[in-house]
Design a protein that fits this description.
With 205 residues, the protein is of the alpha/beta class. 21% of the residues lie in helices and 16% in strands. A 4-stranded mixed sheet has the order 1-5-6-9, covered by helices on one side. The chain has a 3-stranded antiparallel sheet with strand order 2-3-4. α3 packs across α4.
């Protein structure tokens, strides 16, 4: 998908914590950033609230990953959109499929706002497969609900000149309607200051 959109794509499988640190170090100062228009970082793994697991079982906070690409840490990406898509559980709960009465909410369970986990610098977008506290799901053959919807919506809506937030809104709708009694609700958070619209690829995907 991202090759189709014109990105230079690098794929890393079964990444350990040490591997991830090397990848982050490499791309924090990558020479391509100077001429690039946008940076995308995707993570597909297991996770807990606000963090993802490396292949060797280390729990790595999502804000720690994103912090390598702030304007201060990565000047060549200053004023450029930086998109992070995280396909991972954000907890152990399964989302209810019916409305919850206010008195069913545990007043002692206070999760920090997702906004607090996003670096305060401008031009970031964090797309989570699920709201904090809950599991995300995948189909045995088709793959994860979130990534498949993201792929399909980018494929369909980029040629229609839709911006990334409109695309992610469509993804939210897709994923929220799947699963019968197993529900999942993705959540984007962003500090983008302009609409982000990918150029329409000239070739068929």
């Amino acid at each position: 998908m991202f090759k189709w959109l014109g990105f230079n794509v690098n794929i890393y499988d079964d990444v350990t914590k040490e591997d991830l640190e090397e990848v982050l170090k490499k791309f924090k100062s990558h020479p391509d950033h100077a001429d690039g228009d946008c940076f995308v970082f995707c993570v597909l793994t297991h996770g807990e609230f606000g963090a993802v697991y490396s292949s060797d079982g280390a729990l790595i906070p999502i804000p720690e990953i994103m912090s390598h690409f702030t304007a201060l840490q990565c000047p060549d990406l200053a004023n450029k959109p930086k998109l992070f898509f995280i396909q991972a559980c954000q907890g152990e709960e399964i989302q209810p499929f019916a409305s919850i009465e206010a008195d069913a909410i545990n007043p002692e369970l206070t999760l920090p706002s997702l906004r607090d986990s996003v670096p305060n610098e401008a031009d970031f977008l964090l797309g989570l497969a699920t709201v904090p506290g809950y599991k995300s799901f995948r189909h045995r053959t088709e793959g994860s609900w979130y990534i498949q919807s993201l792929y399909n919506r980018l494929k369909d809506l980029v040629p229609r000149h839709e911006d990334i937030l409109s695309i992610l809104t469509a993804v939210n709708n897709d994923v929220s309607q799947r699963g019968g009694t197993l529900k999942q609700m993705p959540q984007p958070a962003f500090t983008l200051r302009k609409k982000l619209i990918f150029p329409v690829p000239q070739e068929e995907l």
